[in-house]
Amino acid sequence: MKIILFKISIGLLLFTLMGCNQKKKELNAAILPISKEIKYAKGFKIDNYNGYSVLRITNTWPESKQIYTYILQEKNAKIPDSLKQFTVISVPIKKIVVTSTTHIPALELLGVEKTLIGFPSTDFISSIKTRALIDARKVREVGKNENLNTEILIDLAPDVIIGFGLNNTNPTLDNLQKSGLNVIYNGDWNEKTPLAKAEWIKLFGALYGLETKANQIFSEIETAYKSALTTAKKASNEPTVLCGSQYQNQWFVPQGNSWAAQFLKDAHSNYLWKNTNGTGSLSLSFETVLDKAKMAEFWIAPGDFVSLKEMSDSNFHYKEFQAFKNKKVYSYALNKGKKGGILYFEWSCSRPDWVLKDFIKILHPELLPNYKTHFFNQLN
User: Fold this and answer.
1) Among residues 197, 143, 132, which one has the least CA distance to residue 337?
2) 259-266 vs 211-232: helix axis angle to the nearest 10?
3) Better-predicted residue by pLDDT, 125 or 8
4) In 3D, which of 378, 376, 371, 373 has the Cα closest to residue 345?
5) What is the pLDDT of residue 146?
6) According to the 3-state scheme, what is the secondary structure of the chain?
């Protein structure tokens, strides 16, 4: 009888322990975060919890030390007291104001462009879908980035304002936050690689509850970019490339570790400043550039010029470059929207695969015989 009672006691104890372990597992599942996979971007991280996510944004501008934390709260979800000190945003959002044309493609790719209710300097927007909304007066003008109209924005009452900072002094955005508006800093422009910039669509996916769609879109872009890389490796040569043009007595060219230089490297070209250090631009004299690049085979992105004549009228000495003589000058400035905004500035960050294919088409046309460029065209 004692043995039977002992076995029953052990059985009850094991059952109780198993029940406690199960409850502990469930509790841990509710508490421990599930981090979203961010493969390339260095500027943001998203941790998913039960009913809410923690969005952390870093590297919002060069050498930034600031960390911005936002809590994305689903309906009826409970937020721990320890997190209530941060900006809490109810998701999915319904109304948004963005402040850079580079934010527009993410909205359109996700199919939520109709939630855009305000933008500064709307003439810069080129995308057909969003321009139609502007023309229908569904997107309100909210001033300029350096001086956003607080009264209009308070009246619009967006769920989120997506802003950006060039340094740690952002009085306009600070005032909006003090007025009770939710401001999220977007640091996509500060990423160093093409795919890293494009991956910021995942931030917008989290705001709209469209994480799966955002992941799928980015995966397709990543696959297309890698496919273009494979195509470029088939090139039989690496043509020399010059970039930029003279502005106020200085010639600016991308540094060797920059976003633009990465495209030229991936397109299997010999960019003449590829061995310089840095991720920004080099400031050079005209004589220095002429000496190094006079015989360059291609001239890509010579500023906003739309014809060779316009270039030579600006500076007669451009005619001394071999690429100019051979009419191998390619510009992004010809593809403009209805109000003159340049499509390249708007879409290149979100669709790096298009940029890379454009460069491959220019430098190695035999590799993409049926491809039509999205951004770059040969100047006549």
Assistant:
1) 132
2) 50
3) 125
4) 376
5) 81
6) CHHHHHHHHHHHHHHHHHHHHHHHHHHHHHHCCEECCCCCCCCEEEEECCCEEEEEECCCCCCCCCCEEEEEECCCCCCCHHHCCCEEEECCCCCEEECCHHHHHHHHHHCCHHHEEEECCHHHCCCHHHHHHHHCCCCEECEECCEECHHHHHHHCCCEEEECCCCCCCHHHHHHHHCCCCEEECCHHHCCCHHHHHCCHHHHHHHCCCHHHHHHHHHHHHHHHHHHHHHHCCCCCCCEEEECCEECCEEEEECCCCHHHHHHHHCCCEECCCCCCCCCEEEECHHHHHHHHCCCCEEECCCCCCCHHHHHHHCHHHHHCHHHHCCCEEECCCCECCCCCEHHHHHCCCCHHHHHHHHHHHHCHHHCCCCCCCCCEECC
Q: Could you give the CA distance from residue 270 to residue 318 in angstroms, rounded to a whole number? A: 21
Residues 142 and 154 sit within 8 Å (Cβ to Cβ): no
Instruction: Of 375, 352, 360, give the one whose Cα is nearest residue 239.
Output: 360
**pLDDT, mean of residues 223-228:** 98
> What digits encode the pLDDT tens for the residues 194-209?
999 999 999 999 999 9
Residue 288: partners with Cβ closer than 8 Å, 6 or more residues away: 251
Residue showing tokens 């740690």: 168
Predicted TM-score (pTM) of the model is: 0.88
